[in-house]
Design a protein that fits this description.
alpha/beta; 5-stranded parallel beta sheet
Length: about 325
């Protein structure tokens, strides 16, 4: 195991890339006692990186890292404040010995609750009820049961497991798609590898896979054509998992019945984009995991990992840079 200990004679330099609004000064007080903190936005990153020991990325939508990355003496450790690490997966970093970690675990429960809420919303037609309320229409109708419905979770990491446990708790039949086939998984039951073969059996499809070259545009026209006409699609992974035009066509033609999209491609979604107004579509602004207190939890998770780094202990949530995520 590689040692992450630091030179005790020199305070390590931590550059914190924020998205325009840095956290409160005291949020990383116990880290600041032992390190020099440099706060920067994307524009200032090239000037801030020289001499940096640790890069802490709090700007979740950043694309600034490849251009700003120093050719010599890069940071020893990059910590992503998000679960997804695609912003750090560029050739110079992947091929280096720089360690990348993420904030796995902070968002799992909140995203699982979001998925359950969207599925119940579809089944109980809350959107239709609100529309009728606005119209002052009293129209009796039947809704669907959640219990007994089948859900295919595409992505078997920590968030996928949290989703599976919550959906099982309300009686849904859960299966999953991952890298390795297996049966008897305590959360997913059966895990397959052939997405197209499993899509026709699902009433709901939940995309939560990390964005890698293997998963980019995983949901294309053929994938949506394989789904049931009454199936709903929920994306809490990355917008680039989906060919957006193919999703629009599937919704317009009735190939699928609806979609709940917390992530889209592009982000933010332009005001004139057809997804805003297509029937059966629900859009949220990439906030499915943003529970009250999440930002403080991210900083605490980094501080805990910094304790490990200073002490020379193994870091938590180390990313396999060839896979593009933390192995399960």
């Amino acid at each position: 195991m590689r040692s992450y200990g630091v030179n005790v004679d020199k305070a390590p330099v931590i550059t914190i890339l924020h998205g325009g609004r840095p956290p409160e000064p005291g949020a990383l007080a116990r880290v600041a006692e032992r390190a020099e903190l440099r706060w920067t936005d994307a524009a200032g990153l090239p000037a801030a990186l020289p001499g940096t020991d640790v890069l802490f990325v709090l700007d979740f939508g950043t694309d600034a890292l490849p251009a700003a990355w120093p050719r010599e003496n890069p940071p020893r450790w990059v910590h992503m404040g998000s679960t997804g690490v695609d912003a750090a997966m560029f050739p110079a970093l992947i091929s280096s010995d720089v360690v990348v970690t993420n904030t796995r675990g902070v968002f799992d429960a909140a995203i699982a609750e979001y998925v359950l809420g969207q599925i119940i919303g579809f089944a109980k037609d809350f959107g239709g009820a609100l529309l009728r309320q606005h119209r002052r229409e009293w129209e009796h109708r039947e809704t669907e049961r959640v219990a007994g419905a089948s859900v295919l979770i595409v992505g078997t990491g920590g968030i996928g497991r949290a989703i599976a446990r919550l959906l099982r708790a309300v009686g849904m039949r859960v299966s999953a798609i991952g890298r390795r086939e297996r049966t008897g998984d305590p959360d997913f039951g059966t895990v397959g590898t052939d997405l197209r073969a499993e899509l026709p059996h699902a009433d709901y499809v939940v995309a939560v896979a990390p964005l890698t070259e293997r998963t980019r545009h995983l949901f294309d026209a053929a994938a949506f054509a394989a789904m049931k006409p009454h199936a709903r699609f929920v994306n809490v992974g990355r917008g680039e998992l989906v060919v957006t035009g193919a999703l629009v066509d599937a919704l317009r033609t009735g190939a699928i019945a609806g979609a709940a999209l917390d992530v889209v491609d592009p982000e933010p979604l332009p005001a004139e984009h057809p997804l805003w107004t297509l029937p059966g579509v629900r859009i949220t602004p990439h906030n499915s995991g943003d529970w009250v207190g999440w930002s403080g939890a991210i900083l605490s998770a980094f501080a805990d990992n910094f304790d490990n780094w200073v002490a020379g202990r193994p870091l938590r949530n180390v990313v396999d840079k060839q896979l593009g995520y933390v192995p399960g």
